[in-house]
Every structure is written in structure tokens, then in C-alpha cells.
Amino acid sequence: MAAQGPVEALASRHGEGWTDPVATALLVLADGTVLEGMGLGATGHAVGEVCFNTAMTGYQEILTDPSYAGQIVTFTFPHVGNVGTNDEDIETVNMASASGVRGCILRTPITEPSNWRSARHFGEWLKNRGIIGLSGIDTRALTARIRETGMPNAVIAHSPDGSFDIEALKAQAAGWPGLVGMDLVPDVTTAQTYVWDETPWVWGEGYGRQESPEYHVVAIDYGAKRNILRQLAGLGCKVTVVPATTDAARILEMKPDGIFFSNGPGDPAATGEYAVPVINALVETGLPVFGICLGHQMLGLALGGRTVKMHQGHHGANHPVKDHTTGKVEITSMNHGFAVDRESLPDTVVETHVSLFDGSNCGIRVKDRPVFSVQYHPEASPGPMDSHYLFTRFVNLIRENRNEPPLAER
């Protein structure tokens, strides 16, 4: 008998010829490119912008961050799912609502969870959250393509039987207008005003509750993350969260000590149509103001600047940023596809932070008012804790406004 090669031997053992697994998920790009993989999570199809995230941890926080609404997230780290999921790491404020992310792309199949905090398998969690997943494609090649050609519009589809109308999916991907000019904040903002009092997580204790707040901060919710609100509460702020369309008069009726503009998704210029007039009115009051991410971008618009769509955006937990006010470099967590154009900012605005990856603007402050903002996410969920000092900086502006001595920045 002739010697068998490995393929023939495998076929012989199974009593049949070699068969390839049927693709149960597709990523269909707007230019017609079709990438095949294995489906996981929810079934169906969704259209969005494909970005890549370089974080090695924090997949649950990333996929529940409302700033990712309208996007399909490609994880560059190959093994995802190893710590499972739990209810403590969800970042969207409403536990029951979807965060707006359209899908996720993984290199390898989901690994089994191995963590004492795990309460549910990642694949089951994706299904329950309505998030479509795809694994088994070359995420390095997809990432390289995004770096070269920009973030493409695409459809992600999952069908357990491998049946797809590819031409219809191509048409849907090609016909989606993209994030430029798209206001996604109405999909993720709160529907009603509420007070937040949960404080940051402590080892062995979990999350706490605020008992005696010293300051009152009104946070405008453009897609706020839980841990941002926790950081404010942990520094003694009673946080009243209001919908994105709340007018300035209503906010001022609440007699805040400071105003916070949250993170959020979509094109800042589109949301700014109704948000910028409110921001302008609040800045003019002289109250301390702090903005993050979309809040930073719209503050830039309100101060006379403009925003631009980025080629590949910033998405990850390892982005170096220099703080010109201290000369220090911090490693930050980022998630944005638009940026403030520094050349458009007036002389009354100072650039405080800059990305050391590409030199783009990452922070501003107003010269004659207690107003500042940053592009990145300082709350460390996910990501490093280097930027927690910004919350203390905001509280110190409130304390200065009340003629109280500053706290030490941490």
C-alpha cells in the first residue's frame, strides 16, 4: 500500500474527502470586497464604519461604549473572550439598552472564559446584546488596509446556515452614507434627567455609593460612560445627568457648580447644530466646564474652531499624549474618528494636549475662563489610569470658583 500524506490520512480516518467549513459570517466592504469568516453572537446584518482597536483588554467596555455607535470594531489583539463578561464592566448607563456598536471582528474563535469575575460566555453575551460577531479573518491585513485607505463603510452579516444575498449586502454597504454629517447622539442619550451617585470600583469592595456630595455638576449626556460619572462622584460631585437636547436655561435652573460635556458618537458638526448654542450659553456664564471626546469636539466648535474627519481615527488604550501644562506624557485610552483642527482655533484658546502618534489636537482650554476639554478618555475604562488627574483639575476649578484651596492632582 502506498504511503498516505496527512490530507489523505485525515480523509481516510473520516471515511470521506476533505471538506472546508461553510462561512457563516461575511464582512462586505463598500467597494465590493467580501471577507468570509465564522459567525458568532447575534444573527442578521448591520451596516457601519469599520475601525480597529489596539487595546489588549477591555473588550466588554469597548463594545458598550456609546461612542462606538455606528461602528464595526476590529480587535487587533487576536484572543478575545478570555475573561468572559459580567454586569460590572458595562459602560452604557442603561444596562438594558444597546450601546449602538454595529458589530465586532476577531482573529480567532472566542476562547473559553477563565476569570473569577466571569458571569457569562462572551459569545452568549454578544447574542443577548444584539451584537453581530465575525471571527477567522486576517485582522492584521484588515488593519493594514484601514491604515492605508481609511475606515471603510461595510455590512457585517451572520447567518448560521451560510446563506447570504451578497449582491444585496454589497448594495447596502455602498449605499450607506457614512458617519460624516450623521448625528447619532439621539440613539444613545438618556431620555430623562437622573442623579448619579455610584463611585469607582475598589478592590474587595466593588462600587460604592456617594453619601455627602460637596459639589453639584450637571452632565450633558451625548453618550456618557458609567466610569466617567463614577470618577466625578468619587471626587464629591453630585452628578445630575440631562438629555443632550436640554437647553441652557433649564441647566442653569439646577444651580450647578460646574458643567460636564460627555463623550458620544457621530459627527460633532451634526450634533453641534443643536448642542453648540447651548454650549456657548453655558461657557458665557463663567462656570467651570469640562468636556471629553465628543464634548471636546463640540466645545472646539463653540469656541470658533472646526472639526475634521480622521483617516483612521484613534482607537485603543496605548496612545501617548503630552500635557503641555505639565510637560508630562501620559498613556491614554482613545476612541474617536473626528478631531479638532488646531489651526482653526482662535487666539483665545490654548492647546493643552497633543497626540504623540500623529500630532493631532487632544486638549484645549480657554484663556480667560475656567473651561477645558480633552479628546481622549481619562476615566480608564478600559485603559490606563494616567489621566485621572483631569477630574481633580475640574473639581479644583469648582473649588477656585468657591474660593476654596485646591486638591492635589492625582
Quickly give the structural class.
alpha/beta
* Spatial arrangement of strands, main beta sheet: 8-12-11-13-14-19-18-17-15-16
- State the distance separating the first and last CA atoms: 75 Å
Q: Radius of gyration over alpha carbons?
A: 23 Å
What percent of residues are in strands? 25-35%
Global morphology: globular
Q: What summary fits the major beta sheet?
A: 10 strands, mixed
How helical, in percent, are the residues? 10-25%
Number of continuous helical runs: 11
Low-confidence stretches are 1-15
Order of helices and strands: HEEEHEEHEHEHHEEEEHEHEHEHEEEEEH
What is the residue-mean pLDDT, rounded to a whole number? 94
Structure summary, number of beta strands: 19
Describe this structure in words.
Helices cover 24% and strands 30% of the residues. The strands form 3 sheets. The protein has a 10-stranded mixed beta sheet with strand order 8-12-11-13-14-19-18-17-15-16, with helices on both faces. A 7-stranded mixed barrel has the order 1-2-6-5-4-3-7. A two-stranded antiparallel sheet has the order 9-10. It is of the alpha/beta class. Helix 9 links the parallel strand 13 (258-261) and strand 14 (289-292). The radius of gyration is 23 Å and the shape is globular.
